[in-house]
Prior knowledge:
The protein has helices at residues 15-33, 59-70, 73-83, and strands spanning 2-10, 37-42, 49-56, 87-96. The chain is of the alpha+beta class and 104 residues long. A hairpin with a 6-residue loop joins β2 (37-42) and β3 (49-56). α1 packs antiparallel against α3 (73-83).
Amino acid sequence: MIVEMRTYQTKPGMRTRFIEIFEAKTRPEHDRLGMPIAGPFLSVEDPDIFFFMRGFPDIDSRETMKARFYEGRLWKEELEAVLMPMLERYDVVVVDDPDGRIAW
């Protein structure tokens, strides 16, 4: 499995609202598309940072599956305009989990 390790920094005070929308809208759509999510995990040192992991069956399916989400109606018509302005930045590290160490 290929895993994206994603760290997000929201604008001050926006983390709770971002995660509410993430849980209500983003996670169900990812589940529907076959992209499991582990997290979110909240930073105990910074109230504006959280982390989650997103899985893909293999490297070849990653771009296709991401495109289904980011080019889809939910992202384009609803989430992008709401979530992106809440972010200061985000970082993504892509890793391989060949031994299935991450329990989804």
